[in-house]
Amino acid sequence: MANLTVEAIELTRLYGGRAAVSDVTFNLQQGQVLGFLGPNGAGKSTTMKMLTGNLAPSAGSVKICGIDMMESPKEAKALIGYLPEMRPLYKEFTVDEYLTIAARLHNVSGKHLKKAVEHAKERCGLSHMSKRLIENLSNGYQQRVGIAQAIIHNPMVVILDEPTVGLDPIQIRDIRALIKEIGQAHSVIVSTHILPEVEMVCDHVQIIDKGKLVFNGGIDVLKQQRIGNKLLVGLRQPPSAEVLKTIAGVTEVELVDSMWRIRFAEGSQPHEAIVQAAVHHNWGLYHIAPDQTSLEDVFVQLTYHESVPVAEVAQAA
Ligand SMILES: Nc1ncnc2c1ncn2[C@@H]1O[C@H](COP(=O)(O)OP(=O)(O)OP(=O)(O)O)[C@@H](O)[C@H]1O
C-alpha cells in the first residue's frame, strides 16, 4: 500500500532467553492514530524502542515508509519524531533555544530552521512562550515543548509515550486535541494506560499482553465489543425471570442492583417486545438502556489470565 508509514513484521525481543515481545506484526497508514495499550510489563516500551530504532529486535523487522530500520537506520529514523516517557528537555534553555537545538539534531537545514521552530511552536500553542525558560513552564507546557521537538522536522511518524501522564484535566484536554490534530497529517502512535484516552484520540487500537498482541483493530470494533448484546431494564412490578425469558430473542436474565440485565441473541432486537410486554402487563417500566461493558472490563477480559495460586504450586512441587 502506498501510504503505509509503519510496518512491524514479526517483531520479537528476547531478554536472557525470555521473550519480552513475541511475534508482533502490524501496519500503520498515514493519517492514523494508533493507541498502544497494555498492562505494566506487557512489552510496550520494548516495542516502541524497536520501532524507533533504539533497540535491535532479536527477530523480525521494522520499516518506516518502506525503509528498513536495520538496513538504513539513519534514513528510517529521520522519518520519526519521538517523545519518550522521560521528556528529553534541557530546562536551562528557553523554548526557542531548545527547539532550535532539536531542529538541528533532526537535520533541519539552516535556512529552514527559523520557520521550523515557528511552525512547531504555532502547532503546539507555544508562540507566546518563546523566550521563557523551560524550567519555569508548567508541566502541560513542558509537555507541549516535548511534542514540539518530536514534530519539528515534520516527520511521517510521531511516537508519543504516555503523553498525558501527570497533567491536569485542562492540559490533558489540550494535549489530546493536539494529538488528534497532528494525526491528520502524520501517523501517530500513542502509548497509554488511560483507556478513555484511546477512545478519544485514536482510530486504531492495539492491546499487548505478555509480549503478544491480543487485540488489533479499529476503535469501532472495540466500541462494538463494549456495547454488546445486553440491556439494563428497570421494572417497578417485575415478573419472574422465567416470564422475561419467554420474550423472543431473550437468552438470559439476571438481577443486578434491583434492575434486570437482559442478554439477547445476536441479531435479535427484543427492545420493542420488552416495552410492549411491560405496558401490557403493567410492569412499571422506568428504565431501558444498553448495558455497556466498560472499556476497563474489555481490557481485563483480553488481558486476564488465571494465575495458579502459590499454595497450589507449592503442593504440586
Ligand atoms: N533491559 C531489560 N532486561 C531484562 N528484561 C527487561 C529489560 N527491559 C524490559 N524487560 C522485561 O521485558 C518485559 C517488557 O517490558 P517493557 O518495559 O517493554 O513493558 P511495558 O509494557 O513498557 O511496561 P510499563 O508500562 O511498566 O513501562 C518486562 O517483563 C520487563 O521486565
Please mark out the parts with pLDDT under 50 across 5 or more consecutive residues, or reply none. Answer: 307-317
Question: Which percent bin holds the helix content?
Answer: 25-40%
State the order of secondary-structure elements, H for helix, E for strand. EEEHEEHEHHHEHEHEEHEHEEHEHH
CATH homologous superfamily of the largest domain, by name? P-loop containing nucleotide triphosphate hydrolases
Question: How many E-type strands?
Answer: 14
> What structural class should be given to the helix and strand makeup?
alpha/beta
Oligomer type: single chain
Q: Rounded to an integer, what's the Rg over CA atoms?
A: 25 Å
CATH fold type of the largest domain? Rossmann fold
The first-to-last residue Cα distance is: 53 Å
Number of helices: 12
How many domains in all?
Answer: 3
TL;DR of this structure?
The chain has 317 residues and is of the alpha/beta class. Helix content is 37%, strand content 28%. Strand 7, helix 6 (169-185) and strand 8 form a beta-alpha-beta unit.
Characterize the structure shown.
With 317 residues, the protein is an alpha/beta fold. The protein has three domains: 1-79 and 155-218, P-loop containing nucleotide triphosphate hydrolases (Rossmann fold, 3-Layer(aba) Sandwich), CATH 3.40.50.300; 92-154; 229-291, Alpha-Beta Plaits. It is built from twelve helices and 14 strands. The strands form three sheets. Strands 6-7-8-3-9-10 form a six-stranded mixed sheet, with helices on both faces. The protein has a four-stranded antiparallel sheet with strand order 2-1-4-5. Strands 12-13-11-14 form a four-stranded antiparallel sheet. Helix 3 crosses helix 4, helix 3 (95-105) runs parallel beside helix 5 and helix 5 packs parallel to helix 6 (169-185). The longest helix is centred in the middle third of the chain and has 17 residues, at 169-185. It is elongated and about 80 Å long. Residues 307-317 have low confidence and may be disordered. Residues 15, 20, 38, 40-46 line the site of adenosine-5'-triphosphate. Residues 6-235 form the ABC transporter domain. Keywords: ATP-binding, Cell membrane, Membrane, Nucleotide-binding, Transport. Pfam families: ABC_tran.
